[in-house]
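Feature request disguised as a bug: please show the residue count (1033) next to Glycerophosphotransferase in the output. Example input:
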Amino acid sequence: MNILDVKNSRLMVSTDVVESIKEIKINKKKIKHTISKTNEQFSEISFDDISKNSLNVFHTIAFYDKQKNRIDLQLNREGIFPFELNNKYQAVLVGRDHEMLIKFIDVSEILKKANKLDMLSLKVNILSESSSEINIGISDFSKNELNNLLLIAVQKETKISHLVPIAFLNEDIIIPKKYFSGVFDLFFTMIINSTIFKLTLDTSELGYQSFETELLEGKSPYRRFVVDNQGIIVESSNKSINVNFDFELTNIDHAYLLTGELIIEGEVEKQSIYFDRPHHFNNPDNKNILKLFLLSNGLMSIIDISEKTYTKEDTKEIESTVKQATNLDITKIEIEDTLLSFKIPSEISIPKKIQLLMRERKSKEFFFIEGNKAFDSLIFDFKEFLNGTDNKAERWDIYLVINAESEEKNVYRIGSFNDIIDDKPNRFYNFFKQSFDVKSTYNMYSRIYLTNKNQLSLVKGNISNLIKEQFEIKTIIDKFTMRKGFVNFRIIIKSSYLTEFDIGEIYLIQRNKDDLQKRRFEIKRIQDESNRRYIDCKIDLLKEDLFPLYWDFYLGIVCENKEYFIRVSDVSKKVLEDVNSTISKYQLSVNDGKEIIYPYVTLSNDLSFTYREREYFESSYYLLKENAAYYFYKLFEKYYAKKEIWVGFEKLAMSAHESGYYFFKYVYENKNQKDFYYVIRKDSPELKNLKGMEDKILYFMSFKYFVYMFAAKLLVSSDTKRNSYNLKMKKSKLAKELTDKKLVYLQHGVNGLKVVRDFYKDRGVFDLVIAPSEYERKMIIDHWGYNKSEVVTTGLSRWDALVDKTNEIKYRQIFVMPTWRTWMDGMTNEKFMESEYYQKYNEFLSSNKLDKLLKENNVKIMFFLHPKFKNYIDLFDFKSENIEKFGFLEVPLDEMIMKSSLMISDYSSVIWEMFYMKKPCVFYHFDRDKYLKYEGAYMDFENDLFGDVSIDADGLIDIVESYIKSDFKEKEEYMQLRKKYFTFIDKNNSERIYQEIQKHKKSLYKMPKMKKWKFTHVIPFKVRRKILDIIKK
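Example output, currently without the count:
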């Protein structure tokens, strides 16, 4: 008897037997198959097409030799053994009583249906166990029913799922013991007569506690250990994947490789781990190799290796191959859904192995796409490429690789080389079919096109840019007026291909990565002139249901009966000067004056609208005061120039509890700087923190405040410049002066949890950056683009005041502070309550289990929303008396931190304070993928975080319970990270900051060239112009 086996989701047969297999029949019908040699002992069998076979039902399978004799092949043991067919389907071989059946399965569809079902508890009893397997007795099922079982393992951290092999022993089942390690959640499905049942294991009799239970008791089966991924290189070929380390691997029990579709177990060697590569996992560029799991003596390490992968044919060899590529003319290029098809010359023979080599033009990254021959065409499915490459604008050149597995492979640069170069619009093909979680103008689409040399390439970008490129469209707004809500403007659209498309309508679209809110307006008139089209538009802002924050102009471009939105870019010099000339000219009051709408020109010279709340100080009174203070300052400019005026402030000039305040307090108490002033509003609840320092207070919007703001030599703050004035105002005199003021950035908090592109050097916002540690200093230099001399390591000023105050209250306190999300800017209350953000936090805070846990253990939760979400705090509704909620500045933030025993956040930088104070931290990452897509992070969330992570409310409550039971003791593995993240842990941070400012005084005091000014400038320009005209006459 010859043996079939399934290893790492691959159907294997011994090489000596495979040579005799000439046919495979399913339900007595021949099926196309491929046999690939994996090593000297085994070969892999894969099926090329299963589309004619029904899913979720058993089929007979048989193997035949050249003489049509049936070959006796059996599984090496009875059971259910799954293996991969392709990226969508799996198969299971079921062997029982010397009979073998096969079933084809769409696992994703089963999971989709099963997730909507309630679980039925499946009682199991442990019968015996070995070092690698557990023998389990299951009652209530017959032999035939057991054949329909599917055991699904879901990896806890990533939610990637795969099928688990099950062996039979009479009417019992045998499951690999590693699946009870705590790394996976397990559940059965059973498909009978097209009905799916979902069953969960009742393991109460197993002798193994569930992962959650052990976690609560502080003895999780696998605690984390950290492996530095810097010394890891991942090499791969068509047959295997090798993970190589620069150190010896000792005591590793199991190693798993996670891809976007499955989990593969590897063989651990001295300094490497070897993984067999499933045949369908065919992309040597490994864009979907994600993580490596190592299990060792009750410890677990998750290593992100997505950026560590190289092919055995490394980049230099790929570049050499590309340079040697010859041109190959292809014809009948077509796009359908995610498929690219084309014909090649008939004289070129096509072997079984063909690939497209995709090469990114700038980064030189590469990606392989497997192809198939269908009749006289080659077909390539781009689905994996579209899902696996970065969501950013890119260009990829396309090469055809023939004889991909041979050393004598042929590489061709493909294109329509025998055709004349067509007009540009005709060189773009249909968009690939792509699905996105949300509709947004930020979505990145991909399409194939012919370059100006008729070479085939692929471009990725947003729809606006792709359509503009296809038709060589340029736009400009050259006329603009606005009166009482009516906006009249003219768009000039320039293109050599105006007859190739029609104009749809004009739109205002809210700037949002997570939603597509648009307002449509009719166009008044369109007039053509040569290669220009003049489009006159009129919109009534008062008729439209606008809401905060930014709205951009888009134009509808219609081609092939479909309308695409293109961003209206650029304004004329006249429009720029007109819009930026005065504050009040185009300001429209709405909602009884509580809100305002006004146009502004972006940094990229595009016209947009801002819709926001009106600040109390946005009135003619304060504007007159500001202008008067400006002219007063100009009269005495030489006097103020002799002073070294520093101005400190914090968020919205409202707070006094962060590093801006503590550094000011240090300087004031040590009398280091005579003219250091602090800006704060008179109605701030934190004004009391400045008691005894009133002589150095600048009350926000006072005459003295304006004068000293104009005269300031240096701004010193933990926030950006505009927090000292008006975040949105850009046209006033002080707003323009602030642009040239130098700022020492004390840091709002430690970065790492969020990419902050607004802080990059090219934005011109900071002149000296204070870093809390060498770890962050390196990150700021590497990512933000500052020179080494512009970033200094001192520690944060507010850390000097941190002391543990947990014993000053009669209960244990948990501080919950989520941060904001850019894609939620300006949400209505209704929209906010529909958001995942609201629902996840409300689910946690409203939990009856949590309420009971808090009451029984004398624990209270203090829930605090980010200042940008302060208006939503009352929407959270929970009945627990042990939970209190607070808005911005309703309680002192630093006091809250010092009195708390545990902090829960998602991505807020405030959580670093708790870690600094050696208190446990917990991360609630229910929207991690979305956050990383829209915001990004500098840290690796798998390995760099200094606290436990949960992705749902139940898991978060379990973690809270475990810390309550351990008396809020910080875990050892997180303690060890403190040395990595903090250079100083003392009370001298403010002193170091002061010394660094003194060292950098020369560059910080360097002011831009003073603009020439005359006293006649007090008279407005238009009035001066009329006077001069009269004098001339």
